[in-house]
Amino acid sequence: MKKYCMITFGCQMNVHDSEKMAGLLKSEGYSETEDPKDADIVIFNTCSIRQKAEQKFFSQLGRTKAIKKRKPGLKIAVAGCIAQQEGSSILQRTPYVDYVIGPQNICAIKDIVRSDSAVIATDDNPNVADIELPADRKDTVRAWINIMYGCNNFCSYCIVPYTRGREKSRPAISILDEIKELADKGFKEITLLGQNVNSYKSDMNFPALLGEINRIGGIERIRFVTSHPKDLSNELIYAIRDLEKVCEHVHLPLQSGSTRILALMNRKYAYADYVKTVGKLCKEIPGIAITSDIIAGFPYETDEDHKTTINAIKEIGFDGIFAFKFSPRPGTKASEMTDQLDEGIKTERLYEILEVQNKITEDKNRMLEGRVQEVLIEGISENDSKKFSGRTRTNKIVNIPSTKSLRAGDIVKVKVTRALRHSLEGKPV
Ligand code: 5AD
Ligand code: SF4
Questions:
Q1: Domain boundaries, the chain
Q2: What class does CATH assign to 135-366?
Q3: Whose CA is nearest to atom 2 of ligand 2?
Q4: How far apart are alpha carbons 266 and 167 in whole angstroms?
Q5: Residue nearest to atom 14 of ligand 1 (CA)
Q6: Predicted TM-score (pTM) of this structure
């Protein structure tokens, strides 16, 4: 039996793409190995959102060269966003690579891996949203599901519209069928995936899709990522409020608190619009968690702009953020802007952002001490085998000492006993 080894970088979209490639390879008789030395094919599912992710991949790829020297029959595939962006130049740079597969072409992986000669599959695929692929999911409780592919927004820093192409929504019926199947298999939580889920549009819009999913028996929780602030409609806010399975958490990337920088980023909203949206979310859905992404050191960002972002973080009081140093991506508008900042300044600003947010996250978590939360158990805690681990509806991790036997998939009421920076501790009540 042939074996594949899948090495995944980057976002949840990539993790799910890997599940689909794994599903296709399994249907072709392959089994999985975690050791590249033991594999017949190694697949790198790559990310190019920031330079760091790219460097990580290229250094790992380099290590497979030695393995291939000892085992010439080993095939190496580069999939994902770097594959799309670099195309044939990957074969020039690293000639020991056999296949280059862009994110819109993973559906062809079965044919590709049968080929004895090099394959470069990076064409635009207009049918990407209509092709059903059997995902091989590792989790048994939580499932990620694509509802749309690509992005039309062209934020000036972002490579995604170039690697994943234009927005295409998957037909509602195929999404609903997949979720019904997952419910039958015992999955409890689903997360709908798209670069900009709230611009989903097929025969229904996103709030309507949430309404349909809410009716599927067996599914207890519905989440979605990522939302764009410019498209977060009142209708969606009311859907989150009224549909009992839709969790009280929105990941809403702000990117910068400075309206001047937001315009340079081509985000299409002002800071005041964002604050208004968050205000509505908090008013309609008390206790909702808001998380965000922030970029530190965008071109032309002054000390003043940075301070504005710090103040925005304090004013909004996010439950958590992901913050990144601006990384110029070849081909994007921002990479060509003349006023690129020093790495040192970017690092300083990033640390300040993280420090301010850490304190806010801790304070927010502490406010939950003594409160009872609904937790979906995911399994044994990664850091402590004597504890179970799960999440609140607001997506906060809760570790629970194993006083009574809990199983992955159980939904339990838990009293928060202690708040830590990145997790909570609690006991079932
Ligand atoms: N540099 C830094 N961060 C970036 N992001 C996207 N592109 C870049 C870039 N070139 C961040 C944004 C986005 C998140 C997924 O990654 O904050 O929301
Ligand atoms: Fe990138 Fe902006 Fe699209 Fe998000 S919305 S994927 S940041 S271009």
A1: 3-121, 135-366, 372-428
A2: alpha beta
A3: 155
A4: 17
A5: 293
A6: 0.95
